[in-house]
Amino acid sequence: MNTRDISFSNKNRAVRISNCTEQRWDLIVIGGGITGVGIALDGALRGIKTLLIEKQDFASGTSSKSTKLIHGGLRYLKQLEIGLVRETGTERAIVHHNIPHLVHPETMLLPIVNGGTFSKLSASLAISVYDMLASVPAKDRKQGLNKSETLAKEPLLNTELLRSGVTYSEYRTDDARLTMEIIKAARREGAEALNYMQVDNFVYHQGKVIGVQCSDKLDDTTHEFLATQVVSAAGPWVDKLRAVNNSTGGKSLRLTKGVHVVVDKEKLPLEHSVYFDDFNGRMIFAIPRGGVTYIGTSDTDYKNDLNRVLCTSEDIDYLLETANTIFPKARLQSHDVISSWAGLRPLIHEDGKSPSELSRRDEIFESDSNLISIAGGKLTGFRKMADRIVDLVLDKNPSLNKTSCLTKDYKIHADSFVDYDAFEQYWKQLHAQYASEGLSKYYAWYLVSTFGKNAASILAEASENIKGDYMEAVIKAEVLFAIEYESATLPDDYFNRRTGKLYFDIKSLNTHFDLIIDTFADYFGWSEGEKAEIEQKSIQFIKDSTEIKSESMQLA
Ligand code: FAD
Prior knowledge:
Layout: H1 13-22, E1 24-30, H2 34-45, E2 50-53, E3 69-70, H3 82-98, E4 104-113, H4 120-133, E5 143-146, H5 147-153, E6 162-172, H6 175-188, E7 192-194, E8 197-205, E9 208-216, E10 222-232, H7 238-244, E11 253-264, E12 273-277, E13 283-289, E14 292-296, E15 300-301, H8 313-326, E16 337-348, E17 362-366, E18 371-376, H9 382-396, H10 420-434, H11 441-451, H12 454-464, H13 470-486, H14 491-498, H15 501-504, H16 506-524, H17 528-546, H18 551-555
Parallel strand pairs: 1-2, 1-10, 2-7, 4-12, 10-18
Antiparallel strand pairs: 3-6, 4-6, 5-6, 8-9, 9-10, 11-14, 11-15, 11-16, 12-13, 13-14, 17-18
């Protein structure tokens, strides 16, 4: 099956934009994070003519900065968020089924320690409730472990603090890839999506919003797009757009920053994801992935620049100190951090609550001028959030045909694996096929868990174009795939959000940086001056994720 759709390339941008301005849409969605793309897919599947507009790259907001878990959120049980846990818990298996190559089963280990949040009994009870709420099948339910069984699973755990442990099941994903696959699916179903297009204002008719005024962030041109209904899924920016719409009354957002740091797997070699307490009872994850382990997250109020959120030395100290308490033999130090990411939670303000106590529920705002906004929620719950919004759009607009949500059994990738076993077989078979050319086991797994079965066409193209080093041919084919079929426009789009190399394979990024820049420059025909400017910006993006900043730099 041909799953490659070159009409998404930004080489065709001028034509694509003019197609968008020439028609009136049923629905315009502002924001290309998981919430916005979920709405676009749900809408398109229901026959609603949908345009999605994103001011930077798809998933460049919070949706590339999460812990990358498809989970029900065990800790929310402590806050008695039963509805949220039931919904996201149940969604886990659905998202896994709908895109198995991107949502991997993950065994979590919860160590029970002296003075920790959970006793063996309370952990066991909480996880039983969790498994029940999420209808987890018997084979994947929690397992209690004694101290030596827990240590056998993770020998680096603090032997003095440890009393016992519990394992339970979750899923791990790549948030930005999930966002990308959903927007590709939405386009396949008839939606359109533009990145680097910023909504600056709304178009009104008789006091009601009927469209958006935008500026193109790539060439500064301005455009107007019209629709029956406009929905803002702008994440942390939702209140800014509500202010533009003069509709900030009632509830408002409270933004909290969450940071993750990445260390080499050799520095913290874990076999399982471990979920542990900090000194104040906040829960933190340490998650092994490929050649690295990542640790997060912090949760602090945030009032600075929304467009450049940085991990500071204070964030690193907090995460490493917490990790060193539970894994004392690792002796992690700040120079062990090879990269990091920092994201903002768009939470709903509640008086008198600390960041960690705030609800993770989503909230829908409707303005008198007919703008619908949605914020909050979880990556995991994107499908249900989209279902609620599209139902609301249909309720408010009788001119649109009323239909029910179709995403529950919808395979997101055009050429999907039937299940996880099929994914496992596929990448092993690709490895066997290309090992003699120089493809490593890790890279075969990485390509298929990133691009699904499109990995095969990337490898075939690489084999046809080897000019020297095999891996250079593979990287070039990968970059071209991201540009032509996934709307990557700047190098950062490729190494950050189409692949996550910035966090999970920084060595490959450093080795092939020049090749990546050259491939973009050749494809888009950049002049030497444009290329030099974009290269400098790319270097700055990498530095933002790899160099330690002081708190004062974040305030700048
Ligand atoms: P965003 O991803 O921020 O998308 C909003 C988009 O709107 C942005 O791309 C932005 O550029 C665009 N935009 C803004 N203004 C404009 C404009 N004027 N014009 C055009 N576009 C505009 N959830 C889980 O389920 N599992 C987890 O493991 C998890 N971990 C998390 C860890 C952290 C540290 C954080 C911060 C969150 C975590 N979450 C997790 C929650 C989850 O990541 C978020 O709920 C989700 O990503 C929010 O997506 P969104 O689309 O609403 O916002």
